[in-house]
Amino acid sequence: MCEAASVAGTTTAIEPPSTQQERDLVLQLQEQRDQIMHHTAELDAKISPLEEMRRDMKTALLGILEALCEAGVPCKMKRDEFVPVWYSANSWANQQRIPWNDAEKRAMTPQEGIQWIVAKAGACTSSSTDSKSKGSHSDPSNAAGTHTGSPIATTVPVIQPEAESAESARAREELTSALDDLASVESLQVPLQEMCDMLKGALLPAHQTLVDAGAPVAEQRMHQRQEEEGNSVTDNITAASGDRPLWLDETRSLLWNQAAGTPMLLGEAVKWISERL
After folding, report:
1. Spatial contact of 161 and 21, defined as CB atoms under 8 Å apart
2. Three-state SS string across 29-64, please?
3. Angle, helix 110-120 to helix 166-212, in steps of 10 degrees
4. pLDDT per residue over 172-224, tens digit each?
5. CB 215 within 8 A of CB 207
6. CB 65 within 8 A of CB 87
7. DSSP three-state, residue 217
8. Exposure string (b/e) for 132-147, b if CB count within 10 Å is 16 or more?
9. Where is 25: in which H helix or E strand?
10. What are 100-152's pLDDT values in tens digits?
């Protein structure tokens, strides 16, 4: 039976502890369910852009591979286990021709292949790389991933009343279902993110090396803009943002085919460098 308390002439029913515990549990389950569903939706929304970026980067890397081989970079036929992910193609074949560093018994990175062309032409006295790609060999497989795990709790609460009601049982089932959906989306999004990180780790140093070697870039103009506070800032205006690949951020130069007025593919840039140096 419920107890009663009198406050200022009114009588208020006090909930039995078990009922309040039940309500608290249902609210806790529903709150976690909503957080997980929101996080799942965020991850799911990333899958399509990531897949598009992965395809674009792989196409660019395979274009570099073809251009490096055509430019005379040392290449060898190697079994699949020796072919890095950024060169891998033709899944039906068990061997592939790739740029090869014979001294170190490993595949050349795309960046190293471009540096080999530049060095052979005698167009540089040292490795032409900035702080983003400095060093004779940057291992793209060590590229840092951006996935840090789920930022929310994903465990079903274990605190529950002695006799669980139909309402809390339903809330628990909904939470379990939400967790299953999250696991399903993560099984797609996480490996895809890791693959994109690895491909980008190979592609960006190669891109920067092409820029440093003199490959044409989109026309840039600088102007000063005075903000309300009187601070002077510099804007870098280049080609339309729609021309920029998803993997290339705004701080990097955009390789540009001046004659066609379109972005230059990286494979084309390698050929441009090899023919002109």
Report:
1. yes
2. HHHHHHHHHHHHHHHHHHHHHHHHHHHHHHHHHHHH
3. 0
4. 999 999 999 999 999 999 999 999 999 999 999 999 999 999 999 986 533 33
5. no
6. yes
7. strand
8. ebeeeebebeebeeee
9. helix 17-70
10. 999 999 999 999 999 999 998 874 444 444 433 444 455 665 544 444 455 55
Tell me the Ramachandran region of residue 274: left when phi exceeds 0, alpha when psi lies from -120 to 50, beta otherwise.
Answer: alpha
Q: Which amino acid is located at 101 in the chain?
A: N
Strands (DSSP E) contained in 80-211 are: 95-101, 106-107
Question: Distance between CA atoms of 160 and 162, rounded to whole angstroms?
Answer: 7
Euclidean distance between the first and final Cα of the chain, in Å?
Answer: 93
Q: Are 110 and 205 in contact (CB under 8 A)?
A: yes
Nearest to 255 by CA among 212, 202, 221, 201: 212
Structure tokens at 212: 């440093």
Q: What is the number of residues in the chain?
A: 277
Cross-sheet strand order for the sheet of 95-101: 75-79, 95-101, 106-107
d(CA 139, CA 88): 16
